[in-house]
Design brief:
- The protein is globular, with a radius of gyration of 27 Å.
- The termini are far apart.
- The strands form two sheets. Strands 1-5-4 form a three-stranded antiparallel β-sheet, with no helix packed on it. It has a two-stranded parallel sheet with strand order 2-3.
- The protein is mostly helical.
- The chain has 15 helices and five strands.
- The protein is 60% helix and 3% strand.
- Keywords: Membrane, Oxidoreductase, Transmembrane, Transmembrane helix.
- One of its GO terms (molecular function) is oxidoreductase activity.
- Pathway: Lipid metabolism.
- It is found in: Membrane.
Length: 417
């Protein structure tokens, strides 16, 4: 009897020990998970990374609890420093790479056997357009005085680079400055002003189908930038004809008109150089070596800016609700994969760029990461594959209207047909 009682007690002790050990292990696991979660939150990790959110299309908030000064304080001081030497390095780098692409295409594609030459040209066009877009981005930085500490150097470099890529430097610089000053204002923004429901045109309704969307995207990407410069399509309505080549255009102020004329002379010089090349090399050679890559720059430019400013999560404002920081925050970063680096990170630092446009591209990622914990849910990056994102925005972002049940009737959101 005593032996049986002893064995029973020993079994109870063993069971009790196992339970204690199990509870102890559970406590360790929970503690580790809790510490890991707190660590991520404190470092601005997964809890603050909108790219890992389940619904990237969730609307951003409207009223920020921070100021521009708060954001600047979060950025390391060296991120605001512009280096002429470092900026010049990227210009030289891009020019060297562009020359290598040109040399390979000019010397070797013509001697490739059929059909390799027909495959090689598109590869060249993509590579050359990519690197030239990076060069265009540096010209864009010059317009924001982010190239060096000297405005005349910035304007000289930007003028040469943009003129060579058939972009009127000063004209676009001034209209682009207006865009930054009035981002997502339905009354005063300079470009990418969406239509309200009552203003949706008949052809938009006709093209509201898969083939129509593909046609619309191809048209926008290839002709969007030239037509914007020539006719101010998708731009601010001035009550009369406006373009980027007329010094008297309402886009520009009186003091800007001389420099607009200078931009025109820059383009005339570029076209004269093209004429000389055509006379010497032939139209087909110039088209393949230079023309198609420059068209590719326009395609990249429209694609990048369209995706930065067109998203279901982004609000637009009329004059009753708009203010500068609300507008600047109503943009979104995009992930172009390996092209992010080729394009000097302009693709995934656009939110920062609208908040502080004079930070050079080589400091942009560090500055962006520094302000993300402050921005919180006001910051978004959409990593949706680019072609999928293009089609989604063309389908979903047709017109804007305020929410019927909202008290903020001046805040507009994208809707589909």
């Amino acid at each position: 009897m005593l032996a049986t009682h002893y064995k029973l007690n020993m079994k109870l002790v063993e069971i009790h020990k196992k339970r204690i050990l199990k509870l102890h292990k559970s406590h360790i696991t929970l503690s580790f998970a809790d510490k890991s979660s707190k660590s991520n939150m404190g470092a601005g990790g997964n809890m603050l990374d909108p790219s890992k959110a389940n619904d990237i299309l969730k609307r951003v908030p409207v009223e920020p609890p921070f100021s521009l000064s708060d954001l600047k304080k979060a950025i390391p001081a060296h991120c605001f420093e512009r280096s002429l030497i470092r900026s010049s390095y990227y210009v030289v780098h891009d020019l060297v790479v562009a020359y290598v692409f040109y040399f390979l295409a000019d010397k070797y594609i013509p001697i490739l056997p059929y059909p390799l030459a027909y495959l090689a040209w598109p590869v060249y066009w993509f590579c050359q357009a990519s690197i030239l877009t990076g060069l265009w981005v540096i010209g864009h930085e010059c317009g924001h005085h982010a190239f060096s500490d000297y405005q005349w150097i910035d304007d000289t470099v930007g003028f040469i680079v943009h003129s060579a890529l058939l972009t009127p430097y000063f004209s676009w610089k001034y209209s682009h400055r207006n865009h930054h000053a009035n981002t997502n204002s339905l009354d005063n923004d300079e470009v990418y002003i969406p239509k309200r429901k009552s203003k949706v045109t008949l052809y938009s309704k006709i093209l509201n189908n898969p083939p129509g969307r593909v046609f619309t995207l191809v048209f926008r990407l290839t002709l969007g930038f030239p037509l914007y410069l020539l006719t101010n399509i998708s731009g601010k309505k001035y009550g009369r004809f406006a373009n980027h080549f007329d010094p008297m255009s309402p886009i520009f102020t009186q003091r800007e008109r001389i420099q607009v004329l200078l931009s025109d002379f820059g383009l005339l010089a570029a076209f004269y150089a093209i004429k000389l090349l055509v006379d010497n090399k032939g139209a087909a050679w110039v088209t393949c070596i230079y023309g198609v890559p420059v068209l590719g720059v326009f395609v990249f430019f429209v694609l990048i800016t369209y995706l930065h400013h067109t998203h279901l999560s982004l609000p637009h404002y009329d004059s009753t609700e708009w203010n500068w920081i609300r507008g600047a925050l109503s943009t979104i970063d995009r992930d172009f994969g390996f092209l992010n680096r080729v394009l000097h990170d302009v693709t995934h630092t656009h939110v920062l760029h609208h908040l502080i446009s004079y930070i050079p591209h080589y400091h942009a990622k560090e500055a962006r990461d520094a302000i993300k914990p402050v921005l919180g849910e006001f910051y978004k990056i959409d990593r949706t594959p680019i072609f999928k994102a293009m089609y989604r925005e063309a389908k979903e972002c047709i017109y804007i209207e305020p929410d019927e049940d909202s008290e903020q009737k001046g805040v507009y959101w994208y809707h589909k047909m």
